[in-house]
Amino acid sequence: MSSIKVVGLAIGIVPIVVEILKSYRTTKDRLKSFAHHDLVIDDMHLRYRVAATNFSNNCQLLLKPVVDDPRELSGMVDDVKHEGWKIASLEERFRSFLGRDYELCEEIVVRIRNVLRETQVQLAELDKSDAESSTLNRIHQAFDITLKKNQYHRWLDELDQWNAKLGNLRAQRCELQKRHTYRPKWTVPRRYADIHTASQRLHESLQESWSCTNASHIGHQAKLSLDAQVEDVTAQLDMVIACCRRDSLQSQKGQAEAPIWLHIQSITTNAPTQTPSTKLPALADVPATPSYVEWPLLDTPPFRSVVQVDKKILKRVRFDDLSEQKETSSQPSSKSGGNPKTTSDSAGLSFASQNLKATQSVCCYLSKACLSTNCKNPCLGYLETQEVPKTFKFIFYGAGQNTETQITNKASRKTSNPINGMLQRLTTLHQLTLAHKLAIAVLQYHSTSWLAPDWDLHDVSCFPGANLLSEADITRTLQSLRLSTQFPPATSSTLAKKSQDPNQLKYMYGIRNLTLAKLGVALLEIGFRKDISTLSTEEMPHPVISARKALSEPSSSMAMLGKRYIKMARQCIDCDFSCGEDLNEENLRSAVYTDVVCTLEDMIKDWKRFIGVR
């Protein structure tokens, strides 16, 4: 066999496969011509037909990854003289597809070819004595009961075995190739990365620049809206800053402070910061009384109702002179919360030049500016940070003054609640909408200070309406979802309680990506409408373990959302996207976008169509 193997390796797989297809066809035809003379030969003929069909199917499946045109693929299997077999690159494509198993596959098809050659040699003897004896005598001579029958059965058994081995090898290579060359149908939108960068730089700027002289404040919490928008070089973010007061003051009735509602534009440039023409954008189309955003009352994402700035205006960025900035920061203000210095150009356009970092108290300044009833200028100031070669400018606008009066229960704007508290009230459409928002949030805010790896639904807050009695109330509440971070940051002991050793999570619990795993847990909690820990009477070492246990037990609670939803949750928990386990890699993010975000979008459309909602 060594000589045969060498010959096979020298020739390649393609000519051997072509020869096998010819041999099967010839053998079947010869057996068919004798089958009506003897039941033994009829049985042989049937088994050869089965073997030939198995090989043809394996051959077609083997060709599928290397031949793009389905019609050409089918034609090649049916016709050994097809022009497709003569393509010079076909053998190389086979080699590329089979990889390290190329020579093994070649040896298998050589074995099949050799068995067929031996069979054809034996069958050729049937054609030698047409004139010497009758057809019946020739058949009995060729298929002697004691020798020939056993020999043919042995060849048939060998063909079945090698066909099965070829099929197994082909299936394994297809599976490996599928996992190795997975390409998401959709690429994750570029704006997700822009929002990811802008949100992290905003957090860093706030941490570096934040100041507060109010003795009653012991901390501050920034709540960033899950909804964001990117236009050209600007990212539009919305944030609420809540002041945490001392317990003695917080407990007093009516002492809760209204949060500071802000709209922030992040402008990214490659220009150096030290230029003599540094000014903030002039908002040419901002009305005297700005149209502020009010999250709970909108049916569209919050960023669509912010002050709309014409794209051309956004591109026309203007900056104050350094001398003007220095004068502004050096002049003592009568009150820490005074109005920012404003300047008007020849067209009467107003814009602020206040560097928030230069104020004595950023907290007091923003609070007074936002809550002032006579504040005519929505632009409050800016923060700036640089990461060579890029410069990030964050321009702050008030976003809550006018709409405060539109809320029937103003207290609802003062406190936020974790979203998990309203799971029981969610309809199927609300469940899918919430899941969709969280999936996008993971892609936008993963690996930032806004979203911890071990996050859960307790970390996602909302500003609920007065009573959440109607579906419209819940819909509006879902438009106010926010992620939170503290100023100053939480102590290391507090963070230690939440974080766990990544190696322990990976090797002990099999958690490949904690952020995605917690997204899967959140999807299940939304589906079950309850905390994952309440689904089992036993205490589990980690919520992901509880989620896996819940997935293994069929539940009617998840029936309405269907198998696609359950599959998504399982994929996230196991990080089963065939694209690694690092969300910083675009391939994995695109896979999550395709398999989770886009799938949820399709499910939302299907459900709206089903219930007759546009």
Automatic annotation (TrEMBL):
Source species, domain of life: Eukaryota
Comp. bias (Polar residues): 328-347
Renumbered residue ranges of the record's region Disordered: 322-347
InterPro entries named among the record's database cross-references: DUF7580
Pfam family, one: DUF7580
Domain DUF7580: 425-605
PANTHER family per the UniProt record, alphabetical: ANK_REP_REGION DOMAIN-CONTAINING PROTEIN (PTHR35186), PRION-INHIBITION AND PROPAGATION HELO DOMAIN-CONTAINING PROTEIN (PTHR35186:SF4)
Name of the protein described by the UniProt record: DUF7580 domain-containing protein
Originating organism: Byssothecium circinans
